[in-house]
Specification:
Structural class: alpha+beta
Number of strands: 15
CATH superfamily of the largest domain: Vaccinia Virus protein VP39
Number of helices: 5
Bound molecules: S-adenosylmethionine
Strand order of the largest sheet: 10-9-8-15-14-13-12-11
Helix content: 10-25%
Distance between the termini: 48 Å
Shape: elongated
Order of helices and strands: HHEHEHEEHEEEEEEEEEEE
CATH class of the largest domain: Alpha Beta
Length: 284
């Protein structure tokens, strides 16, 4: 971002709106996300009308304003630079979305994210990393975090797209990366479920790192192996193969994790026929 800062200082000299106010003191400087990037960030996060979106370090307000205009999202932009907060508020008024798009002078680390469904970021990599515990402490499962150009350190992304932007001088030159994370539910532990007429008691031992799961499954009357496990927000999916009651089956478990319960269904197929049973598991 050192390169970024020199570049945006150069831009500041040439532009009517100051593009940078900060020196290289660990504070993220003001650099705007290009319109194509804003559009793709919002498409990835897909805010629903009425959902709450927060842009941490909102600059001229473009992300919050676009989210209000295109998605009807209720947005808050926070920035520590009062001049940018005034500019963003004025831009929201001009765009006719001031009822949905609010801006406040606030440190992003002191911004309450509880009840927020979408968080957008264009910050330095170290700042993203420092934010990580706060995101996990305050966001609910299913909340989406979208970041322009920089990842979230140890938290693996759920999706990433790269846009070629020939004119881009800041961050990785000539391209932008956009990352999406979906806040995972806590699925750790041992889960028990009864599948009457299909093996009896099933046990699932789940280890979890962020959204990555390692699952072992066992069943009273059979032998099974987990072939795939996926967690996206509160939605869990497991593919399990094996022999139950002396016959070979493929099982596709799909459910939602809510506290100490998983509620969903399992599709059971022997290659010729398939049937669906409820899957209700409780944490042991
Ligand atoms: C790279 S700009 C991103 C602007 C906008 N989100 C966008 O994508 O176009 C980062 C912004 O974060 C703001 N910022 C830096 N440190 C901050 C902090 N601790 N709290 C709130 N805002 C901060 C800066 O003033 C700047 O406007």
């Amino acid at each position: 971002m050192r390169l970024a800062i020199s570049a945006c200082l150069a831009l500041a000299a040439a532009s009517a709106i100051a593009q940078s106010w900060a020196w290289d003191d660990g504070t993220t400087p003001f650099v705007v996300s290009p319109p194509d990037v804003v559009e793709r960030m919002l498409r990835l996060a897909a805010p629903k009308p009425g959902e709450r979106l927060v842009d941490l370090g909102s600059g001229d307000g473009r992300i919050v304003i676009e989210a209000a205009k295109r998605y009807g999202a209720q947005g808050l932009g926070v920035d520590i630079d009062p001049r940018l907060v005034r500019l963003a508020s004025e831009n929201a008024r001009r765009a006719g979305v001031e009822a949905l798009a609010r801006f406040e002078v606030r440190d992003l680390f002191e911004t309450d994210l509880r009840g927020v469904q979408v968080v957008t970021l264009y910050l330095l990599p170290d700042v993203n990393r420092k934010l990580l515990p706060k995101l996990f402490a305050e966001l609910a499962p299913g909340a989406r975090v979208v970041s322009h150009d920089y990842d979230m350190g140890p938290w693996p992304f759920d999706e990433m797209i790269e846009l070629p932007l020939a004119e881009k001088l800041v961050g990785p030159p000539g391209r932008s990366r956009i990352y999406l994370w979906v806040m995972p539910a806590d699925a750790r532990g041992t889960w028990l479920a009864e599948l009457p007429g299909h093996g009896g008691r099933w046990r699932f031992a789940i280890a979890q790192r962020y959204q990555l799961l390692e699952v072992e499954a066992s069943v009273a009357e059979g032998t099974v192996a987990v072939r795939g496990a996926r967690l996206r927000g509160d939605e869990i999916r497991l593919a399990v193969v094996g022999t139950v009651g002396g016959r070979g089956f493929v099982h596709l478990f799909r459910g939602r994790v809510a506290g100490a319960r998983i509620a969903g269904e399992v599709e059971i197929s022997d290659g010729e026929t398939s049937r669906t049973l409820p899957w209700n598991a409780t944490r042991e």
